[in-house]
Specification:
Layout lengths: L6 H7 L5 H8 L4 H9 L11 H7 L5 H13 L1 H8 L5 H11 L3 H8 L4 H8 L5 H8 L8 H20 L3 H10 L8 H23 L5 E4 L6 E2 L14 E4 L4 E6 L2 E5 L5 H10 L8 H15 L5 E4 L2 E4 L20
Antiparallel strand pairs: 1-5, 2-4, 3-4, 6-7
Length: about 325
Amino acid sequence: MATDSNPLTDAYMALGLSEDFAAAIASGQDADAVIKTWKAAWRKGLPDNHPAIKAVLNGKASPEEAESLIAASHEHPELVTLVADGTKTMKWVVAVLDGFKGMHHGVEAIIGGADPNIVANFLDVEVNSKTLKIIKEGGSPITKIDVVINQIEENIQRSREQFASMSEEKMKETLKKSHLKIGRGKKERIERYDRFLNLVCQISKNSVDPALSISGTYVKEKRICNVCSQSRLRYNREPRDYCWNCRREVHTVVPTVKNIRDITDSKNFNTISDALGISKSKSKFEKLQILRKFTKQIDIPLMISKKGTKIVRTTIYEKGSSNHEQSNDFRKS
C-alpha cells in the first residue's frame, strides 16, 4: 500500500505493524478498525494485499465484514475485489452473495450489468424482492463530500483561468450567459466574473454540505446606504452619495451576503438570487432554473430541487473522512 517513505508510517511500523497497516493509520483510516483487523485470528496467514484485508485498510469494510468476505473470496474473489477497490459497496456484494452464492455464471452476469430478476429466472432460483432491489440499485459507492468539494473548487479555478485567457468576444458571450454586465475592459470583466464564480462556488458547496456557509460581495453593481442599507440613492454609484431614505449625504457600500447556511429558506434563496443579479420579478422556481444553468455551465453540482411549493436539498454524498476547511473565497482554497 505504501510506496513512499512517510515518517508517520515509520512511527507506526515501530510498533510492529506491517507497512500497509501502518500506512493505513497514517493516512487517516479508522485506527481501531485497522488494529482490530491486525489482531484478528482470521487474518493470520493472509497477505496484506488480500482483497478482504485491503477492504479494511482502504476504509471500504469493517473488520467483521472483512471476515465474512474471507469465505466468499474462495468462491467469488471478483466480488471481494470490487469492495476492496471501491467499485461496489459492501451492501451490494452481500446482496449478490445472498441471492447467487455459488452460482458463478449468475454472479458473472450480474457483475457485467445483467438484470438480477432475469438472472434469477434463468437459473430457477428464488431471491427475495429486497435483495433484488439492492442489486438493481447498482452498488456504486456514494462519493465522499470532501472529494466533491475539492472537485467543485478545481472546476471553479479552471473556469476562472479559462475566462482570463478568452478572446474579447468570448468573454462578452460568457458574461451574457451569466447575466452579467459586459464592462469596458478586460480587468473589469475578470473582476466581475471572479465575484460571480466565488459566489456560485459557495452556493454549490453549501448545497452539497450545509455546514459550509455562503458569504461574499454581490455580483451585480449596485451600492447601498451604509446607514439604512437601502439603495434609494441619487446616483447609486458614488462612494459618497445622497440617500433619499435618510435624506442626507451618506457613504455607500457594496452589499454582501453574510453567513447563509440554509439555502432552501425562501428569504435566503431570494437574497442569493439578488446577489447574483437574477431579476426579482422571476418566480422562485424560475430563479432556481437560472441558478441551475449557472452551475451547469461551470460543471459543478447544485444539490437543491423543487418539491411541491418548496425548494429542498437533494444531497446524496457521504460525510468525508477528513475535515474540510471552510473558505469563503475559492481563490484561497
